Amino acid sequence: MPEYRLTHAVTDITGRELLAADTRLTLPVLQTLAGEHKTAFPGCNLLSYCRVQADMVDFLREPPYDVIFHGADRHQAIFDIAGDVVMPEPVLISLYHFRQLDFYTYRHMLLVFALSILIARELIDDRAALLQEVMAGPIHDIGKLCVPPAILTKKTPLTPSEIVHLRHHALAGYVLLTHFFGEHENLAARVARDHHERKDGSGYPLGNPIDNLMIDIIMVSDIYDALISPRPYRPVSYNNRTALEEITHQAMTGIISKTVTRVLISLNRRLKPHYSSCTLSSERRGLPPKDNVYGRKSEDSSDPA
Ligand SMILES: [Fe+2]
Ligand SMILES: [Fe+2]
Question: Which fold has domain 43-277?
Fold first, then answer.
């Protein structure tokens, strides 16, 4: 069993420390964390929470999501599924906290969630199973609550110690969601922990080659949104073609899921062919944006999203 160890403390939104820095996430520690408030947190509907639904509608109208989500039936399908998602109240309070603290991360989490639903719909037929899986999607970066805003919004490459602090968000999210959901094997908690792992073992926090469909879906959606969105350190984002070429390259070199990448490419085509007919090509015609630092050694080379 691989060992997870916290590099920094994990605190909730009120500043209460759940676990101290250097804590090993052993089974007894996780069970205590999960059991402490097992029935204390009421469930709330995600879309009904404050302006979440209206914000999602606005975000989905922005390019290139307007192409991906083109058509009333797609919007309907997203909101039909998302409308049934219920989360513990502190999770929604935390999500909404980002709306003031770090709007990029708030928008990013909702767009990754919407895209993950669209991709999951192509790969999971049963609605109940689909709902069960997509519940894990809206809050994959919740652990960024435990990263100083100065690091999240820094405009220049991060120092090695800042990278360690940024990467802390994966285990911090796992700890927070284990606590809020009351179970350490909860899929949302595992997605928070594992969405920066890579299929070739090159990711973090452990370098584990994860094999789980929903984690594969969030992984690809996360990288895609990170590439096409403006970031503090990269005011000009990748264009859609270059982003898809970068993702295709990662799929073809075994870093991320080929199947999920095919679905993403099919969703980006106006006629929406079935994903099985979309072949992956290594041809690269686009250029990354000027002054891009994505993938540089001095940065968070496996995607700082
Ligand atoms: Fe992310
Ligand atoms: Fe992340």
Answer: Hypothetical protein af1432 (1.10.3210)
**What spacing in Å lies between the alpha carbon of 207 and ligand 2's midpoint?**
15
pLDDT-based confidence at residue 257 (cuts at 50, 70, 90): very high
Q: Is the pTM of this model over 0.70?
A: yes
Our answer to whether residue 38 is catalytic in this structure is: no
The pLDDT mean for the chain works out to 89
Q: What separation in Å is there between the alpha carbon of 71 and the centre of ligand 2?
A: 29
Is residue 170 within 8 A of residue 118, CB to CB? The reply is no
Q: How far is the CA of 271 from the centre of ligand 2 (A)?
A: 31
Q: How confident is the model at residue 289 (pLDDT cuts 50, 70, 90)?
A: low
Helix, strand, coil fractions of the chain, as percent rounded to 5: 50, 5, 45
What pLDDT does 36 receive?
A: 65
Query: Taking CA 47 as the corner, what is the angle to CA 100 and CA 195, rounded to the nearest 5 degrees?
Result: 70
- List the catalytic residue out of 144, 154, 155, 290: 144
Query: How many angstroms separate the alpha carbon of residue 241 from the centre of ligand 2?
Result: 23
Residue ranges of domains in the chain: 43-277
Judge contact between 224 and 202, C-beta under 8 A: no
State the ligand closest to the CA atom of 194: 2
